[in-house]
Amino acid sequence: MGKKLGFAIILLLAFVLSISAVVRYFVLDPVETNAILIREGMEMFAMNHQLWNIALYIHILTAFLPLIIGPFLFVKKLRNKYLQGHRYAGKVYVVMIIISSLVGIYLAFYAHGGILAILGFLCLDILWFYTTWKAYKYIRNKQQSLHEEWMYRSYAMTFAALTFRMWSAIVGYSLDNFTVGYVAAIWLSWVGNLVAIEIWIRFKLRKGTNISGKVTTKMV
Predict the structure, then answer these.
(1) 135-169 burial string, b = 16+ CB within 10 Å, else e?
(2) pTM of this prediction?
(3) Angle, in degrees to the nearest 10, between helices 2-22 and 160-167
(4) Between the N and C ends of the chain, which has fewer C-beta atoms within 10 Å?
(5) Alpha-carbon distance 56 to 103, whole Å?
(6) CA distance 192 to 164
(7) How far apart are CA 28 and CA 180, in angstroms?
(8) 68: left (phi over 0), alpha (psi -120 to 50) or beta
């Protein structure tokens, strides 16, 4: 029951964030929807820089797919019943993250908040790429348990897109200094996710699991 509830909550949040991002940037006027951010000094959201605009749209489109696909990849019943579908979805997940994380590295250098904001986003994008690549590498080597662990780490970085917005609302708008709160939200989003998933992996996932064993069936 607990797992099903957790899955439902994560999936719901992922859908809400993905749909809101698509509507915000592809349906409505992003300058109007980001008016508060622009007033706070985030001038790039005035959408006056064409290359940055293109990169942002690519980043959004390639990030929302892994956010939605991710939870389904962890459902064992779906994986066992639709193995080919699982493999295909896994490949889409990996390719989208590789593109989105590389584009995110470019966007990071324009982050509001100075060097700490830039470093925060750079670390997130590099870890996003790294954890996903490790997950892919282990399944190619038929190491299912290690693949599963790194997939959880990868999705923790993917889910930072949502926790960043949560922390921004909690910290960014609650402090007198928006920039300080915004930078804090960047770091809290992925560091918090990484700490939480490491605790879960070590104390829950690894119970009774041989993490060095190989499997005979490829998952991706």
Answers:
(1) bbebbeeebbbbbbbbbbbbbbbbbbbbbbbebbe
(2) 0.88
(3) 80
(4) N
(5) 8
(6) 10
(7) 29
(8) alpha
Residues 6+ apart with CB under 8 A from 79: 73, 86, 219
Q: Which of 122, 123, 101, 102 is nearest to 110 (CA)?
A: 122
Mean pLDDT of 207-217: 50
Task: Give me the percent of the chain exceeding a pLDDT of 90.
Answer: 70
Q: What is the pLDDT of residue 215?
A: 43
What are the distances in angstroms from CA 185 to CA 1, 71, 166, 202? 31, 24, 8, 26
Sign of the Cα torsion 104, 156, 79, 19 reads negative
Phi and psi at 33, nearest 5°, equal -70, -20
d(CA 73, CA 178): 37
Instruction: Could you list the beta-strand ranges (E) of the chain.
Output: none
* Tokens found for residue 201: 């992996």
Q: Report the alpha-carbon distance of residue 160 to residue 9 in Å, rounded.
A: 15
